[in-house]
């Protein structure tokens, strides 16, 4: 009986090349097959774009087409078929890497694939490498803290109606909103109605050619901003100032600053 190959789940991106752990790069170089998801509506795999600069034999890459069908039965069948295909490679002793955009286990299709594979191959040698979430990348791109002090942060897919989202915002200090899609127009309208749009930030396709970043969504156009890989960072109140310029100045600089202020007044 042949030994099973190893299965690796690898989070890449989102967007900028280089957002990948060194240990995951080593696994990629050992993989016999690399599965790279591609949206049915896209000509290229964003996951592969995130690997720019890493030397990988293109013959080992298999692009797999995904469609985010709202029909859960269709999706379940899709994941089961993909897991069965991957299981064939693993049973043949091949090492397989599966790419996912962002973190491997945060609202990711990888979690479904892994669960299905474990049913087919209970003794599967497997390792999951964590990746950078879209909201962590968005926060870093705009210098937007996701939580300070004892602020309460909620991470969720966009609700279906404004009342539910309003409740989530009012009961938390910060809300990270994912999977927004066509709901963006009424979401932005709600933020403006609540008078908090200027405290909120928006990011889409971070690090890619058509990147969109906004650290104030008061005037953000929903029509041009809608699309895949979009994240909203919602803050209920203005960020609290937690520092004092006077306190952090060295004594000599503080004296000079005071003298300058006296001369100007």
UniProtKB/TrEMBL annotation:
Top-level class of the enzyme under EC nomenclature: transferase
Keywords: Cobalamin biosynthesis, Methyltransferase, S-adenosyl-L-methionine, Transferase
SUPFAM superfamilies: Tetrapyrrole methylase
Keyword S-adenosyl-L-methionine assigned: yes
Domain Tetrapyrrole methylase: 7-212
GO biological process, one term: methylation
Pathway: Cofactor biosynthesis; adenosylcobalamin biosynthesis
Keyword Kinase: no
Molecular function in Gene Ontology: precorrin-2 C20-methyltransferase activity
EC number(s) per entry: 2.1.1.130
UniProt record similarity statement: Belongs to the precorrin methyltransferase family.
Protein name: Precorrin-2 C(20)-methyltransferase
Species name: Candidatus Methylobacter titanis
Name of the gene: cobI
């Amino acid at each position: 009986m042949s030994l099973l190959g190893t299965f690796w789940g690898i989070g890449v991106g989102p967007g900028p090349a280089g957002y990948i752990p060194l240990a995951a790069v080593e696994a990629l170089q050992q993989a016999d097959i690399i599965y790279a998801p591609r949206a049915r509506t896209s000509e290229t795999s964003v996951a592969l774009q995130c690997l720019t600069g890493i030397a990988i034999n293109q013959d080992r890459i298999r692009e797999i087409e995904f469609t985010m069908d709202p029909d859960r039965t269709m999706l379940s069948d899709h994941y089961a078929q993909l897991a069965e295909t991957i299981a064939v490679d693993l049973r043949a002793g091949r090492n397989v890497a599966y790419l996912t955009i962002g973190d491997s286990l945060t609202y990711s299709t990888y979690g479904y694939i892994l669960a299905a594979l474990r049913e087919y191959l209970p003794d599967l040698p497997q390792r999951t490498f964590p990746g950078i979430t879209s909201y962590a990348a968005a926060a870093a791109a705009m210098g937007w803290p996701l939580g300070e002090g004892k602020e309460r942060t909620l991470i969720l897919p966009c609700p279906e109606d404004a009342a539910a989202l309003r409740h989530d915002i009012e009961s938390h200090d910060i809300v990270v909103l994912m999977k927004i899609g066509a709901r963006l127009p009424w979401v932005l309208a709600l933020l403006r109605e609540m008078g908090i749009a200027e405290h909120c930030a928006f990011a889409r396709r971070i690090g890619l050619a058509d990147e969109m970043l906004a650290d104030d969504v008061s005037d953000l156009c929903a029509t041009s901003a809608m699309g895949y890989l979009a994240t909203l960072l919602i803050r209920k109140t203005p960020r609290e100032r937690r520092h004092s310029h006077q306190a952090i100045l060295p004594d000599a600089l503080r004296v000079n600053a005071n003298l300058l202020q006296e001369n100007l007044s």
